[in-house]
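Slide 14.
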Amino acid sequence: MNIKNEIDLIKEKCNCPGIYVIKNLIDGKIYVGKSKCCYKRLKQHLYDIKTLNRHYNENCYLTEAVNEFGIKNFDYYIVDKLDESLDCNELDILLKEKELFWMKKLDSLNREKGYNLRYDSDGKCFCSKETSQKISNRLKKEWETGIRDEHSNKLRRYWQNCGEDRKKQQSMILKKIKQNGFILYMIQMEI
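Slide 15: predicted structure.
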């Protein structure tokens, strides 16, 4: 359905949690996203693109494509509608897993096929080679220019003075590692 001409139909059909796709009708590229309310998320995308709100919508590829091709050349649809009766935690977990699944299945990280910047669902970042290279270049430059010279020492001093915080941080990191190990396995398996 065309997002500019059929916004009211979208509200009827998309007022639910799920995984959505924004598709460029000219070149076929897609963006995969998740939301507890797909309609509200679409409205946010439209607002961010219209106002060039780069703080909230950090996906410059999608924003630039909409500006180049025009909003009328993009469709929006749900590929995976989720059960609204799930409790909040279950819904969050399922949304994250389904988003990663659909990003992998539709190959939306591939610059020739999609606009997604990274396999990411709330901090579980798996970057494209292009994004990874940009991050690497930025960090190398920061180390070369001395911006990060004191970084290690600052962290060391901080953690020496924060015994209880350090234990909490270690516990949280271990939980995340276990959680991410499962998600990493999900991404690497054949879909």
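Speaker note: The first strand starts at residue 18 and ends at 24.
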